[in-house]
Amino acid sequence: MSDKKQKKPGFFYCVGLMLGKSVSKTLKNDISERVIQIYENKPKGAEVIKLLKAEKAKEKNRKNKNKWRNRRWGTLLFINLLFVVSYFFDMSVLEGALTASRFMGFHMADLNSALQITLASKMILINLVIGFVTVLIMWIIFGGRTFCSWVCPYHLIAEFAEFIHLKLAQKGIVSDHAFNRKVRTVFYIVFLLLAFLTGYTVFEVISPTGILSRALIYGPTFVLLWVVFLLMIEILYSRRMWCRYVCPIGLTYGFVGIFSIFRVNYNINDCLHEGDCRKVCLVPHVLEWTIKNRSFNENQELGPDCTRCGACVDICPTNSLTFKFKGISREKYPCNDPEPKNNKQKIKVDKK
Ligand code: SF4
Ligand code: SF4
Asked: Domain map of the chain by residue range?
């Protein structure tokens, strides 16, 4: 059987996706014949329900169900507390705040802040360039939006707000109001223009990331009320509103994520398409490949908007989602395997 070449989402496709374009319509007709065959051999109807039940039963007894979440929370708290400790004990370990800092003497600059400062000052500041390049290289290695879920303090408290929102939604007290993802692109342009036209880094004044980082290190101020206001909106009106539809930091790191070697990989072979991953994800559009007949590759790297939080990796009942370093990690069922096997058989063998 002749097979179309395995396609990879290109640069412009990834950028379009982050700026608000939809996944499914673009690539639906590009599914390779090998992948079509895998989809055709998948278990159907009652068989899927049976397999899912078996997986969920196993899940209940699994130790360390939230492995990646726990690692992430530990890392996030460690980094932010390192700022606090360095300040209180006057140590040259991690000085400054998340927007601009020095790690063991090396300049570090938040990429979005550096952009805003450059546009506002209309000057190229050498320390800023050093800090920008250092941080850029770091996040190309560790995954662009990894900054969001592994470092940003707002992400952590927004997760608790999301937990409350979901509990209230379950009881029918609140409901989620989703917006068009393109809104974030509009905000991005507006904040860049504001910096350029006013000469002030306007976004930094309202950024909960900077506000929380400074409050932790230098003590709370009344500006924290703004963060409380944002959290209330997220609890009562729109789930994860700030990160999904406003924050330009996420989009800046998303651009870096296009080039990153650290990814979440989706493998279609064992996936039961029940959609648990999309329910826990901050950016569910990157998981649209997991809907049946949407992925056009057997192994599909998730888009750069993925924050590498690991929530989908933790929850996936079939281990179809895994972290990988491109070129280093070994792929489960690599694309150059011989003809796809019968999936029903494969699933039965794997679940023993
Ligand atoms: S989108 Fe912004 S506020 Fe949300 S986690 Fe990322 S940097 Fe933090
Ligand atoms: S795709 Fe997975 S790792 Fe990426 S943001 Fe969503 S839940 Fe987190």
From this structure: 11-61+262-350, 68-256
